[in-house]
Amino acid sequence: MKVLQQLKSGLVASCQPVDDSPMDRPEIVAAMAQAAVAGGAAGLRIEGIENLRATRPLVRVPIIGIVKRDLSDSPVRITVTVEDARALIAA
């Protein structure tokens, strides 16, 4: 419940650069996340295990971690597998 209270009426900033763009590096995602928190974000949405690992130690707000995958046999794109969920928890 504490996390929900922290997020209530606040902004969750999604820090996700375009794949393979110049900003698609964990240290840059972490810096974007820090800037979002400095600007008042109550929480963050971070895509990718390495981005999550780079960001988590630098901020003290709730993070919604996701893994995006485009699979031909599934209409689901976000955190499709149990393995993805476990990796997010471990990160």
Automatic annotation (TrEMBL):
Superkingdom, natural source: Bacteria
Q: Which reaction does it catalyse?
A: an N-acyl-D-glucosamine 6-phosphate = an N-acyl-D-mannosamine 6-phosphate
UniProt keyword annotations, A-Z = Carbohydrate metabolism, Isomerase
Gene3D superfamilies recorded: Aldolase class I
The UniProt entry, under Pfam families, shows: NanE (PF04131)
Record EC number: 5.1.3.9
Q: Which organism is it from?
A: Tropicimonas isoalkanivorans
Signal peptide range: none
Function per UniProt: Converts N-acetylmannosamine-6-phosphate (ManNAc-6-P) to N-acetylglucosamine-6-phosphate (GlcNAc-6-P).
Biological processes per GO annotation: N-acetylmannosamine catabolic process; N-acetylneuraminate catabolic process
> What InterPro entries has UniProt attached to this entry?
Aldolase_TIM (IPR013785), NanE (IPR007260), RibuloseP-bd_barrel (IPR011060)
Q: What is its pathway?
A: Amino-sugar metabolism; N-acetylneuraminate degradation; D-fructose 6-phosphate from N-acetylneuraminate: step 3/5
Q: Name one GO cellular component term.
A: cytosol
Name the enzyme's class: isomerase
Annotated protein name in UniProt: N-acylglucosamine-6-phosphate 2-epimerase
What is an example of a GO molecular function annotated in this UniProt entry?
N-acylglucosamine-6-phosphate 2-epimerase activity
